[in-house]
């Protein structure tokens, strides 16, 4: 009997070893992956995690072996989902993007024509309209570097009424699809109940994704773009300003940490929100959840639901948001949440609890300067962590939330343009923006690297770099009247400007219907005068500008106001105690704004200015204030500003034209509409030289000529 047992044991052991060797228990062959030790054996690359490294998230793939997960998805479905999501997983710009399409015409974007009968959501229509109204747009696919579908891909949840059916067939039938190469697909929602995978329901091929709630596992670095989740009510242009009006010190508010939102009783995304009650203290940490949502919530309610619902109704969400230092942003069913943008706007520092979420625009934005990146597994440590942050750091975090909100997130237009600018930087690497450009005021959208790759060439980086602007200026004089006599104002102005110790050269833009006068008719000056034919006191002002190089500094000022009766913006030249514009007929500003005017503003606005031969000064004021969020600076004071015209002039003064003022009113509203709001800022500051108009000897005054202006 004992011999038989030993025989059976030996037989089973031998069979086990044979099976083990047959199914790969031996030394791995060449196809095995992992790191090879000095002994030649391969081991899986599974190092211990470092807390300084990006945290790996708990996605549905981590739960794929759990009983709950497998109840909802069959092995075949699981294979299909993995195949769909990971197809093109290794795509990068070098392997899945044709740079040659961008070499001839630069970075141009083509939007497919909308097909008859295809439904399209308002949000996706706003995205397409933004692209079509941008400087990147081209209607010629032959000139395009990037292609965007007119088929609505924003909502790929099969239970959503916005879901577009048969998208796979429709996309594959597009003649320019080319397996998605050089295509960009926008998406906010993917997957559906109960697993909410990142599958879009069609093969994206080699297309790039601009996707919300994208995981670090599926995100393809320097290829995809992570965008924020935004609601259908998110403004198309402009958007509201952030709520941090003042640099409040100390920066603490009524609450230290808040959250108010849904609690999921089962399924993905339920763990963190179900555990929030452990941290809630109803004093300075107020974390409220409700399970009162959905049709069948009462069927699944637990013992805490009634208590949670009652506590939930006691607090107003907006009041909490605007009176808290930190705002918790836990994951929902998907990784992203509306709470993220709400916290940014409210200057409530986001505390992220969504392991594995690739944060929006992470390629260019340093989120460590504006948010606290938490870990879902360490929820109980969150209160002590935020309490340990010094108030100086809190103030810096809150200020950065406001910059990021206004620079990149306050409207769909900014989200879309930021996405395109990121891709353009990849395509045109030699002129891409630096990290400082993206993360410092005024941000990447207003800092065009085509102008210069050196930060010192931009007026808003002087203070940060500790440098001073150029000590010389170029005067640009717009001439609209012929030269009849040597006493004309334009000639006097030429002589006066040329006397400035800071003047390097004078450029005269000749926009008169009379031919250029002979060379001897121009006054002799110590600086060169360059006259350019158009197609269709200074020292003090310059010294002031050197202290404020990012702003417009000048003499005659104008203002804007809101007309309640007409429900539109108004323009006024009346003498008041404040102003919001400085007329460029006598002003100093950085030359970068000319480059920005030419390359950033749409052709529709520039064409309007050219056709009217009016409003260019208003438009440049709009642009500079939109960039700086600051008013211009007025120097000296004079209650009347008129363009003196010679009686012999063949061209009547445009200031005397009754349509001139009406045109400027129209311009104000047209410009405000494009900017998505009113960027002009009122000011009551006026800078005068010492002893200006004081009753003292003129010999004691440095700027003696300025009082004659």
TrEMBL record:
SUPFAM superfamilies: Nucleotide-diphospho-sugar transferases. It is found in: Endoplasmic reticulum membrane. Its main location: endoplasmic reticulum. One of its GO terms (biological process) is heparan sulfate proteoglycan biosynthetic process. Keywords: Disulfide bond, Endoplasmic reticulum, Glycoprotein, Glycosyltransferase, Membrane, Signal-anchor, Transferase, Transmembrane, Transmembrane helix. Gene3D superfamilies: Spore Coat Polysaccharide Biosynthesis Protein SpsA, Chain A. It is a single-pass type II membrane protein. Pathway: Protein modification; protein glycosylation. Residues 536-692 form the Glycosyl transferase domain. Transmembrane segments: none annotated. Residues 104-389 form the Exostosin GT47 domain. One of its GO terms (cellular component) is endoplasmic reticulum membrane. Belongs to the glycosyltransferase 47 family. This is Exostosin glycosyltransferase 1b.
């Amino acid at each position: 009997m004992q011999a038989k047992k030993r025989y059976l044991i030996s037989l089973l052991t031998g069979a086990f070893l044979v099976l083990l060797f047959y199914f790969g228990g031996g030394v791995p062959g060449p196809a095995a992956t992992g790191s090879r030790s000095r002994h030649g054996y391969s081991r899986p690359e599974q190092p211990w995690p470092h807390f300084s490294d990006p945290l790996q998230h708990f996605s549905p793939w981590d739960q794929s072996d759990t009983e709950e997960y497998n109840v909802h998805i069959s092995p075949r479905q699981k294979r299909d989902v993995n195949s769909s999501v990971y197809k093109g997983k290794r795509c990068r710009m070098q392997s899945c993007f044709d740079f040659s399409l961008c070499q001839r015409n630069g970075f141009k974007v083509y939007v497919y024509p909308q097909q008859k009968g295809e439904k399209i959501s308002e949000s996706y229509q706003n995205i397409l309209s933004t692209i079509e109204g941008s400087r990147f747009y081209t209607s010629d696919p032959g000139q395009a570097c990037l292609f965007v579908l007119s088929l609505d891909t924003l909502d790929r949840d099969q239970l959503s009424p916005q879901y577009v059916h048969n998208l796979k067939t429709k996309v594959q039938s597009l003649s320019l699809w080319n397996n998605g190469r050089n295509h960009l697909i926008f998406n906010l929602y993917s997957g559906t109940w109960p697993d909410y995978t990142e599958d879009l329901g069609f093969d994206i091929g080699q297309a790039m994704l601009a996707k919300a709630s994208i995981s670090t596992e599926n995100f393809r670095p320097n290829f995809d773009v992570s965008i924020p989740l935004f609601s259908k009510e998110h403004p198309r242009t402009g958007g509201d300003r952030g709520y941090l009006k003042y640099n409040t010190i100390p920066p603490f508010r009524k609450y230290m940490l808040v959250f108010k939102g849904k609690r999921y009783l089962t399924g993905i995304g339920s763990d963190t929100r179900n555990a929030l009650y452990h941290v809630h203290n109803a004093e300075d940490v107020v974390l409220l959840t409700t399970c009162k949502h959905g049709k069948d919530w009462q069927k699944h309610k637990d013992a805490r639901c009634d208590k949670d619902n009652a506590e939930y109704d006691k607090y107003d969400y907006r009041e909490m948001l605007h009176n808290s230092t930190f705002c918790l942003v836990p994951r929902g069913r998907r990784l992203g949440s509306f709470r993220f943008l709400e916290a940014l706007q409210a200057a409530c520092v986001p505390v992220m609890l969504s392991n594995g979420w690739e944060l929006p625009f992470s390629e260019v934005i340093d989120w460590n300067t504006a948010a606290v990146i938490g870990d879902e597994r360490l929820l109980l440590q969150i209160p002590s962590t935020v309490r340990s942050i010094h108030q100086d750091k809190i103030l810096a975090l809150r200020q950065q939330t406001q910059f990021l909100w206004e620079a990149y997130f306050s409207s769909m237009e900014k989200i879309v343009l930021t996405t395109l600018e990121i891709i353009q930087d990849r395509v045109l690497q030699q002129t891409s923006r630096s990290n400082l450009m993206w993360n410092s005021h005024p941000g990447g959208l207003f800092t065009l690297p085509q102008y210069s790759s050196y930060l010192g060439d931009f007026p808003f980086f002087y203070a940060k770099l500790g440098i001073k602007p150029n000590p010389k200026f170029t005067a640009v004089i717009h001439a609209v009247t012929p030269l009849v006599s040597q006493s004309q104002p334009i000639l006097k102005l030429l002589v006066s400007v040329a006397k400035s110790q800071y003047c390097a050269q004078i450029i005269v833009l000749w926009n008169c219907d009379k031919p250029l006068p002979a060379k001897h008719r121009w006054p002799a000056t110590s600086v060169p005068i360059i006259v350019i034919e158009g197609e269709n006191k200074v020292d003090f002002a310059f010294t002031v500008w050197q202290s404020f190089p990012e702003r417009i500094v000048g003499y005659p000022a104008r203002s804007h106001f809101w007309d309640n009766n007409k429900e539109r913006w108004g323009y006024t030249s009346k003498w008041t105690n404040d102003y919001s514009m400085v007329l460029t007929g006598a002003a100093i500003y950085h030359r970068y704004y000319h480059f920005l005017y030419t390359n950033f503003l749409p052709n529709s606005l520039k064409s309007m200015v050219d056709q009217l031969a009016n409003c260019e000064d208003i438009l440049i004021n709009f642009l500079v204030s939109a960039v700086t969020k600051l008013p211009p600076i007025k120097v000296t004071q004079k209650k009347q500003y008129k363009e003196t015209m010679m009686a012999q002039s063949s061209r009547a003064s445009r200031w005397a034209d009754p349509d001139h003022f009406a045109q400027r009113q129209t311009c104000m509203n047209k410009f405000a509409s494009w900017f998505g709001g009113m960027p002009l800022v009122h000011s009551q500051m006026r800078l005068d030289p010492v002893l200006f108009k004081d009753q003292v000897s003129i010999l004691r005054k440095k700027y003696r000529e300025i009082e004659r202006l």
